[in-house]
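Troubleshooting log. The previous structure file for this entry was overwritten by mistake, so regenerating from the original sequence record. Sequence copied from the archived sheet and checked twice against the printout by T.R.
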Amino acid sequence: MRTRFSGWSSGPRATVLALLAVAMLGMAILATRPSSGPTLRTAEVGQTDAALYRAIVARVRAGDGYYTAAAASLREGHYPLRPFITFRLPTLTWLQVMLGDRAIHLVQSVLGIAVFMAWGLRLWPELPRPILAFALLLLWVGIIGVIEPTSGLFGESWSAMLIALAIALNRPKWFPAAILSGLAAMLFRELAALAIVGIASIALITGRRREALAWLAAIAVFGVVVVLHAYQVVAVVRPEDLVSPGWAGMMGPSYFLRALATVTPLGMLPGALASALLILSWFGWWSIPADWALPPALVIGGYGVLIALFARADTFYWAMMAAPLSLVGLAFVPAALRDLVRPAPKALA
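Regenerated output below.
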Protein backbone atom coordinates (compact mmCIF):
# COMPACT_ATOMS: atom_id res chain seq x y z
CA MET A 1 0.00 0.00 0.00
CA ARG A 2 1.38 3.37 -1.02
CA THR A 3 1.63 6.25 1.47
CA ARG A 4 2.45 9.89 0.90
CA PHE A 5 5.97 9.36 2.30
CA SER A 6 7.09 6.79 -0.28
CA GLY A 7 8.99 9.28 -2.44
CA TRP A 8 10.20 11.65 0.24
CA SER A 9 13.87 12.38 0.88
CA SER A 10 15.50 11.50 4.19
CA GLY A 11 15.36 15.00 5.71
CA PRO A 12 11.59 15.54 5.57
CA ARG A 13 10.97 11.95 6.64
CA ALA A 14 13.19 12.38 9.68
CA THR A 15 11.31 15.56 10.54
CA VAL A 16 7.96 13.75 10.38
CA LEU A 17 9.25 10.97 12.61
CA ALA A 18 10.60 13.47 15.12
CA LEU A 19 7.32 15.41 15.24
CA LEU A 20 5.35 12.20 15.65
CA ALA A 21 7.59 11.07 18.51
CA VAL A 22 7.36 14.46 20.24
CA ALA A 23 3.56 14.51 19.92
CA MET A 24 3.19 11.00 21.32
CA LEU A 25 5.63 11.61 24.17
CA GLY A 26 4.09 14.97 25.07
CA MET A 27 0.53 13.67 25.12
CA ALA A 28 1.63 10.58 27.06
CA ILE A 29 3.21 12.76 29.74
CA LEU A 30 0.12 14.96 29.97
CA ALA A 31 -2.09 11.87 30.20
CA THR A 32 -0.25 10.74 33.35
CA ARG A 33 -0.57 14.06 35.16
CA PRO A 34 -3.51 14.77 37.47
CA SER A 35 -5.74 17.24 35.67
CA SER A 36 -9.33 18.06 34.90
CA GLY A 37 -10.30 15.10 32.76
CA PRO A 38 -13.67 13.90 31.53
CA THR A 39 -16.30 13.93 34.28
CA LEU A 40 -19.95 12.98 34.34
CA ARG A 41 -22.11 16.09 34.41
CA THR A 42 -24.80 16.30 37.05
CA ALA A 43 -27.24 19.08 37.80
CA GLU A 44 -27.46 20.68 41.23
CA VAL A 45 -30.12 18.15 42.19
CA GLY A 46 -27.87 15.24 41.16
CA GLN A 47 -29.49 14.55 37.79
CA THR A 48 -27.21 13.36 34.99
CA ASP A 49 -27.56 14.42 31.36
CA ALA A 50 -28.74 10.91 30.48
CA ALA A 51 -31.46 11.19 33.13
CA LEU A 52 -32.41 14.61 31.75
CA TYR A 53 -32.93 13.19 28.26
CA ARG A 54 -34.98 10.30 29.64
CA ALA A 55 -37.15 12.78 31.55
CA ILE A 56 -37.81 14.81 28.40
CA VAL A 57 -38.79 11.67 26.48
CA ALA A 58 -41.14 10.62 29.30
CA ARG A 59 -42.87 13.99 29.27
CA VAL A 60 -43.35 13.95 25.50
CA ARG A 61 -44.74 10.41 25.69
CA ALA A 62 -47.18 11.69 28.31
CA GLY A 63 -48.50 14.28 25.87
CA ASP A 64 -46.35 17.40 26.31
CA GLY A 65 -44.86 19.19 23.35
CA TYR A 66 -41.11 18.82 22.98
CA TYR A 67 -40.18 22.39 23.89
CA THR A 68 -42.53 22.52 26.88
CA ALA A 69 -41.17 19.19 28.09
CA ALA A 70 -37.55 20.20 27.58
CA ALA A 71 -38.01 23.52 29.38
CA ALA A 72 -39.71 21.86 32.34
CA SER A 73 -37.04 19.16 32.61
CA LEU A 74 -34.20 21.67 32.35
CA ARG A 75 -35.70 23.84 35.09
CA GLU A 76 -36.37 20.81 37.28
CA GLY A 77 -32.74 19.78 36.98
CA HIS A 78 -31.44 23.35 37.50
CA TYR A 79 -29.92 23.38 34.03
CA PRO A 80 -29.47 26.59 32.02
CA LEU A 81 -32.12 27.41 29.41
CA ARG A 82 -30.28 30.27 27.73
CA PRO A 83 -29.00 30.69 25.05
CA PHE A 84 -31.25 28.63 22.83
CA ILE A 85 -28.53 26.08 22.03
CA THR A 86 -28.92 24.66 25.55
CA PHE A 87 -32.01 22.95 24.07
CA ARG A 88 -31.09 19.99 21.87
CA LEU A 89 -32.86 19.70 18.56
CA PRO A 90 -35.98 17.50 19.00
CA THR A 91 -35.04 14.90 16.35
CA LEU A 92 -33.80 12.15 18.68
CA THR A 93 -36.57 12.69 21.24
CA TRP A 94 -39.26 12.42 18.58
CA LEU A 95 -37.64 9.25 17.23
CA GLN A 96 -37.50 7.72 20.72
CA VAL A 97 -41.14 8.55 21.36
CA MET A 98 -42.23 7.17 17.99
CA LEU A 99 -40.27 3.90 18.13
CA GLY A 100 -39.98 3.07 21.83
CA ASP A 101 -36.91 1.95 23.74
CA ARG A 102 -36.47 -1.53 22.26
CA ALA A 103 -36.92 -0.46 18.65
CA ILE A 104 -34.65 2.54 19.03
CA HIS A 105 -31.80 0.29 20.19
CA LEU A 106 -32.40 -1.96 17.19
CA VAL A 107 -32.32 0.99 14.79
CA GLN A 108 -29.14 2.19 16.44
CA SER A 109 -27.50 -1.20 15.91
CA VAL A 110 -28.67 -1.37 12.29
CA LEU A 111 -27.16 2.07 11.68
CA GLY A 112 -23.86 0.86 13.13
CA ILE A 113 -23.93 -2.17 10.82
CA ALA A 114 -24.73 0.11 7.86
CA VAL A 115 -21.67 2.22 8.64
CA PHE A 116 -19.54 -0.92 8.86
CA MET A 117 -20.81 -2.27 5.54
CA ALA A 118 -20.54 1.08 3.74
CA TRP A 119 -16.91 1.46 4.75
CA GLY A 120 -16.23 -2.17 3.85
CA LEU A 121 -17.49 -1.51 0.32
CA ARG A 122 -15.62 1.80 0.16
CA LEU A 123 -12.27 0.28 1.15
CA TRP A 124 -12.61 -3.09 -0.63
CA PRO A 125 -10.98 -1.92 -3.90
CA GLU A 126 -8.47 0.30 -2.13
CA LEU A 127 -6.67 -1.91 0.38
CA PRO A 128 -4.85 -5.24 0.45
CA ARG A 129 -7.04 -7.83 2.18
CA PRO A 130 -5.02 -8.15 5.45
CA ILE A 131 -5.03 -4.36 5.91
CA LEU A 132 -8.73 -4.21 5.00
CA ALA A 133 -9.59 -6.85 7.61
CA PHE A 134 -7.61 -5.00 10.29
CA ALA A 135 -9.19 -1.65 9.32
CA LEU A 136 -12.71 -3.07 9.55
CA LEU A 137 -11.97 -4.64 12.92
CA LEU A 138 -10.79 -1.25 14.19
CA LEU A 139 -13.87 0.38 12.67
CA TRP A 140 -16.16 -1.98 14.58
CA VAL A 141 -14.27 -1.29 17.81
CA GLY A 142 -14.88 2.43 17.26
CA ILE A 143 -18.56 1.86 16.53
CA ILE A 144 -19.15 -0.25 19.64
CA GLY A 145 -18.87 2.69 22.01
CA VAL A 146 -21.57 4.72 20.26
CA ILE A 147 -24.22 2.05 19.75
CA GLU A 148 -24.67 0.93 23.35
CA PRO A 149 -28.00 2.01 24.93
CA THR A 150 -26.74 4.81 27.19
CA SER A 151 -24.70 6.40 24.41
CA GLY A 152 -27.81 6.24 22.25
CA LEU A 153 -29.50 8.80 24.50
CA PHE A 154 -27.05 11.39 23.19
CA GLY A 155 -27.51 12.94 19.77
CA GLU A 156 -23.74 12.86 19.33
CA SER A 157 -23.78 9.07 18.95
CA TRP A 158 -26.30 9.17 16.11
CA SER A 159 -24.58 12.10 14.40
CA ALA A 160 -21.23 10.36 14.62
CA MET A 161 -22.49 7.30 12.78
CA LEU A 162 -24.33 9.38 10.19
CA ILE A 163 -21.19 11.45 9.50
CA ALA A 164 -19.15 8.27 9.05
CA LEU A 165 -21.87 6.93 6.74
CA ALA A 166 -21.97 10.18 4.74
CA ILE A 167 -18.20 10.09 4.19
CA ALA A 168 -18.32 6.45 3.05
CA LEU A 169 -21.21 7.15 0.64
CA ASN A 170 -19.69 10.34 -0.77
CA ARG A 171 -19.21 8.89 -4.26
CA PRO A 172 -21.12 9.63 -7.50
CA LYS A 173 -23.25 6.48 -7.30
CA TRP A 174 -24.34 7.07 -3.70
CA PHE A 175 -24.07 10.85 -3.48
CA PRO A 176 -27.79 11.59 -2.75
CA ALA A 177 -27.64 9.14 0.17
CA ALA A 178 -24.47 10.88 1.41
CA ILE A 179 -26.24 14.26 1.39
CA LEU A 180 -29.23 12.85 3.28
CA SER A 181 -26.93 11.21 5.84
CA GLY A 182 -25.06 14.47 6.35
CA LEU A 183 -28.28 16.44 6.78
CA ALA A 184 -29.62 13.87 9.23
CA ALA A 185 -26.37 14.07 11.20
CA MET A 186 -26.85 17.82 11.64
CA LEU A 187 -30.49 17.38 12.65
CA PHE A 188 -29.49 14.96 15.40
CA ARG A 189 -26.71 17.22 16.73
CA GLU A 190 -25.70 20.68 15.65
CA LEU A 191 -22.02 19.87 16.12
CA ALA A 192 -22.22 17.75 12.97
CA ALA A 193 -22.26 20.96 10.93
CA LEU A 194 -18.50 21.23 11.51
CA ALA A 195 -17.90 17.95 9.67
CA ILE A 196 -20.30 18.79 6.84
CA VAL A 197 -18.69 22.20 6.33
CA GLY A 198 -15.34 20.41 6.16
CA ILE A 199 -16.60 17.96 3.54
CA ALA A 200 -18.12 20.81 1.50
CA SER A 201 -14.83 22.72 1.72
CA ILE A 202 -12.89 19.74 0.37
CA ALA A 203 -15.28 19.50 -2.58
CA LEU A 204 -14.98 23.22 -3.28
CA ILE A 205 -11.18 23.33 -3.02
CA THR A 206 -10.77 20.31 -5.28
CA GLY A 207 -13.00 21.83 -7.97
CA ARG A 208 -16.10 19.66 -7.46
CA ARG A 209 -18.46 22.63 -7.48
CA ARG A 210 -21.76 20.79 -7.96
CA GLU A 211 -20.92 18.51 -5.07
CA ALA A 212 -19.97 21.50 -2.92
CA LEU A 213 -23.23 23.27 -3.78
CA ALA A 214 -25.22 20.18 -2.77
CA TRP A 215 -23.49 20.09 0.61
CA LEU A 216 -24.06 23.82 1.04
CA ALA A 217 -27.75 23.31 0.25
CA ALA A 218 -27.94 20.72 3.04
CA ILE A 219 -26.25 23.20 5.39
CA ALA A 220 -28.79 25.85 4.35
CA VAL A 221 -31.69 23.52 5.16
CA PHE A 222 -30.11 22.85 8.53
CA GLY A 223 -29.77 26.61 9.08
CA VAL A 224 -33.50 27.09 8.52
CA VAL A 225 -34.24 24.32 11.03
CA VAL A 226 -32.00 25.98 13.61
CA VAL A 227 -33.81 29.32 13.15
CA LEU A 228 -37.18 27.61 13.69
CA HIS A 229 -35.73 25.78 16.69
CA ALA A 230 -34.53 29.05 18.22
CA TYR A 231 -37.98 30.59 17.70
CA GLN A 232 -39.64 27.71 19.56
CA VAL A 233 -37.13 27.92 22.41
CA VAL A 234 -37.67 31.66 22.88
CA ALA A 235 -41.39 30.98 23.30
CA VAL A 236 -40.85 28.79 26.40
CA VAL A 237 -37.89 30.51 28.09
CA ARG A 238 -38.51 32.86 31.02
CA PRO A 239 -36.41 35.89 32.04
CA GLU A 240 -35.42 34.22 35.32
CA ASP A 241 -34.13 31.05 33.66
CA LEU A 242 -30.47 30.21 34.13
CA VAL A 243 -27.86 31.23 31.56
CA SER A 244 -25.18 28.80 30.41
CA PRO A 245 -21.68 29.47 31.78
CA GLY A 246 -20.36 29.11 28.22
CA TRP A 247 -18.23 26.58 26.44
CA ALA A 248 -14.79 28.19 26.32
CA GLY A 249 -13.28 25.38 28.36
CA MET A 250 -9.75 25.61 26.85
CA MET A 251 -9.05 22.07 28.03
CA GLY A 252 -6.32 21.42 25.47
CA PRO A 253 -5.51 18.55 23.07
CA SER A 254 -4.70 16.08 25.85
CA TYR A 255 -8.27 16.45 27.10
CA PHE A 256 -9.61 15.62 23.63
CA LEU A 257 -7.54 12.43 23.57
CA ARG A 258 -8.74 11.45 27.05
CA ALA A 259 -12.35 12.19 26.09
CA LEU A 260 -12.05 10.18 22.88
CA ALA A 261 -10.56 7.26 24.78
CA THR A 262 -13.44 7.49 27.29
CA VAL A 263 -16.11 7.02 24.60
CA THR A 264 -14.28 4.11 22.94
CA PRO A 265 -12.97 0.80 24.30
CA LEU A 266 -9.56 2.51 24.62
CA GLY A 267 -10.85 3.82 27.93
CA MET A 268 -9.87 0.45 29.41
CA LEU A 269 -6.19 1.13 28.64
CA PRO A 270 -3.74 3.35 30.55
CA GLY A 271 -4.16 6.97 29.51
CA ALA A 272 -0.67 7.31 28.04
CA LEU A 273 -1.11 4.23 25.83
CA ALA A 274 -4.59 5.27 24.70
CA SER A 275 -3.35 8.75 23.76
CA ALA A 276 -0.42 7.30 21.82
CA LEU A 277 -2.69 4.97 19.85
CA LEU A 278 -5.11 7.78 18.97
CA ILE A 279 -2.27 10.00 17.74
CA LEU A 280 -0.90 7.14 15.66
CA SER A 281 -4.34 6.51 14.18
CA TRP A 282 -4.78 10.14 13.13
CA PHE A 283 -1.28 10.04 11.66
CA GLY A 284 -2.28 6.87 9.80
CA TRP A 285 -5.26 8.61 8.18
CA TRP A 286 -3.07 11.55 7.10
CA SER A 287 -0.46 9.20 5.64
CA ILE A 288 -2.79 7.96 2.86
CA PRO A 289 -2.77 10.19 -0.27
CA ALA A 290 -6.28 9.23 -1.36
CA ASP A 291 -9.58 11.09 -1.51
CA TRP A 292 -11.27 8.60 0.87
CA ALA A 293 -8.72 9.24 3.63
CA LEU A 294 -8.77 13.04 3.76
CA PRO A 295 -12.31 13.59 5.15
CA PRO A 296 -11.83 11.27 8.18
CA ALA A 297 -8.48 12.90 8.96
CA LEU A 298 -10.05 16.34 8.68
CA VAL A 299 -13.12 15.41 10.74
CA ILE A 300 -11.11 13.87 13.58
CA GLY A 301 -8.70 16.81 13.62
CA GLY A 302 -11.53 19.34 13.44
CA TYR A 303 -13.35 17.86 16.43
CA GLY A 304 -10.02 17.66 18.22
CA VAL A 305 -9.60 21.42 17.86
CA LEU A 306 -13.24 22.11 18.76
CA ILE A 307 -13.12 20.00 21.91
CA ALA A 308 -9.68 21.24 22.95
CA LEU A 309 -10.89 24.83 22.80
CA PHE A 310 -14.56 24.78 23.71
CA ALA A 311 -15.54 21.61 25.58
CA ARG A 312 -15.84 21.49 29.34
CA ALA A 313 -14.86 18.54 31.52
CA ASP A 314 -18.52 17.49 31.65
CA THR A 315 -19.10 17.64 27.88
CA PHE A 316 -16.61 14.89 27.10
CA TYR A 317 -19.30 13.06 25.12
CA TRP A 318 -18.74 15.53 22.29
CA ALA A 319 -15.83 13.23 21.44
CA MET A 320 -18.36 10.66 20.20
CA MET A 321 -18.52 12.76 17.03
CA ALA A 322 -15.07 11.45 16.06
CA ALA A 323 -15.31 7.98 17.62
CA PRO A 324 -16.41 5.61 14.79
CA LEU A 325 -13.41 6.33 12.55
CA SER A 326 -10.95 7.28 15.28
CA LEU A 327 -9.07 3.94 15.38
CA VAL A 328 -9.14 2.88 11.72
CA GLY A 329 -5.99 4.84 10.92
CA LEU A 330 -3.95 2.37 12.98
CA ALA A 331 -4.27 -0.08 10.09
CA PHE A 332 -2.27 2.30 7.88
CA VAL A 333 0.52 3.05 10.36
CA PRO A 334 2.79 0.07 9.51
CA ALA A 335 2.95 1.10 5.84
CA ALA A 336 3.58 4.73 6.79
CA LEU A 337 6.38 3.84 9.18
CA ARG A 338 7.87 1.51 6.56
CA ASP A 339 8.09 4.38 4.08
CA LEU A 340 9.48 6.73 6.71
CA VAL A 341 12.33 4.53 7.92
CA ARG A 342 13.49 2.69 4.79
CA PRO A 343 16.38 4.20 2.80
CA ALA A 344 15.38 7.04 0.51
CA PRO A 345 15.71 6.62 -3.26
CA LYS A 346 19.23 7.56 -4.38
CA ALA A 347 17.93 10.35 -6.57
CA LEU A 348 16.27 11.98 -3.57
CA ALA A 349 18.73 11.12 -0.80
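Residues 231 and 318 are 25 Å apart (CA to CA). Archived copy saved in two places this time.
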